[in-house]
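Exercise 7.
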Amino acid sequence: MSRDHVQSAERSVPAGASSGSAEAPFLELLARGASPDAYEQPVLLARAEGRPAERIVVLEQAKLLALRVRSELEGRRRREAELSALFETAHDLAGLRDLDAVLQAIVQRARSLLGTDVAYLSLNDPARGDTYMRVTEGSVAARFQQLRLGMGEGLGGLVAQTARPYVTDDYFKDDRFQHTLTIDAGVRDEGLVAILGVPLMLGHHVIGVLFAADRRARVFEREQIALLGSFAALAAAAIDTANLLTETRSALADLERANEIIRDRSGVIERASDVHDRLAELVLRGGGVHDVAAAVSEVLDGTVEFADATTAPPRALEVSRVEGHAVRHADDWIAAVAAGGELLGALVLRGHPGLDPVDQRTLERAAMVTSLLLLARRSAAEAEQRVRGELLDDLLDARDRDPRLLRERASRLDADLDATHVVLAARLDAAPADADQEAAARRRLWSAASHLAATRHGLAAARDGGTVLLLPLEAGDTATRLARRTARHLGTAVHEAVTVGASAPVEDLAAHPDAVAAAYDEGRRCLDALRLLGRSGDGSAAEDFGFLGLLLAGDRDIAGFVGRTIGQVVTYDERRGTDLLRTLDAYFACGMSPARTKDELHVHVNTVAQRLERVGRLLGDDWQSPARALEIQLALRLHRLSTQAQR
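Solution. The predicted structure, written as tokens, is:
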């Protein structure tokens, strides 16, 4: 941005304006979509002109805010582009006329959205017993474009064998799959390094592989793998639909030999065309699963309902999921609604035992469209949950101190920061078997808390190994009752005990964002007290601290108790800059398990063992006995609370 642009933008605002005049050049940058580097120019220009330090600080703050807005806008544009591409591809599939054009569009969109150098799609050839390149985008090597691979060879062979996505950061250094001279020569000609492959599935059969690849080392994110998997599902659907159309044309050629058969089949084909048109329209206008069921009910002249995975007949549902087809159950037909191996529910056609193959395919297509709609709805819900979490994170960290902007952000999420709120700290109490189960349990807790916050006009975010919620307090309610209800609700949702500590009620959060962080600290202290008391799965507010509150009250010698119990460790850390106190905290928090402690601290297990050995030399060999361990944990919590109070 030039000096004239910046000065012009600043002169357009009155001289007495403060934050407004600082934001003007950045708003212009946002409006024209400037690169991140351009946001430094107003600050550099102000320094070069010798502007006051206060002006420089205001410009720095406005720059950071503008960069956050730009980042959020970029994220939204990316998510919108992904969903738009999926829906455009689904629309192409619904109006399928040229399979090559649809597959080419899928590969082009996958390459564009993932930002890779190359994208390509291979299909299995059952007649020759190998696989071949069907579509490529961004490829420049002729040998690569004409590759034919034996089954089970290369990264694609590994994907086809396991029916799971695989990714390699460096193809030639990866020994998980079978390298051959032919494949390696083609990959080397193309200059590919990082490759991601996802299977094209028809039922439980792999018919090919969709790839995205870069000519440099790259790590593919989970969201990118899922996005490529969605395109692979659409590609498989396009191929299956093309096969269906081929079958239909063949049937029509046979039916032309008899007028009676033609009349019989024409009605079926019209219904299939009708349902394809209706489903395409539903996808384009954002219809729901019940709209799909209603449309298919009319076409099949029956009653079609969407059933949750827990209420549909389990055996028929599993057979439908595995085979990828609708199956008969008594007088009903069951079509599993699944995506990426996850079972989302089923479409049930009631009281219609006689169903011809085309109508059966119609029910199966409706199930596929239903899965796309459910995934789109889930993506939208997850995006809203992330936005709620980002706002609460900003309140907890007090990064955004503009009350007007905070109120506007909250209003878009149907939350009212002027109402009285309670900050609640929630954490699971069951000890997971391993790190993966622990991460999965935390995700379930965050998801349940986010849903509760959305229905209660509040906010939720994952934090400190648990979840923090900001919920409004209704007239006549108390923080204690709200904490207990929240503990019961979350525990029921995740099927595990959830302990919840609540702060005292807080008000006027937009004007005093620091109050949220203080209230969260209060809720965490309450949570610690509950866990010390062994009240897992319970909820309590700050005024219900129990014996920990009693220890903190009056003229008790808290500093003396801490010094006698862990003073040597505190002194050792202060003198040597070590992390023994933090290690002790994590060790007790992880159930005295060194393996889980090293995951919590992100260090090697030998490091944990060495630190605990040093603690033993400082505190004595019996420091892990039940009595000493209780005193040490209490001293650690008192020391933490006292240092927080000093800060």
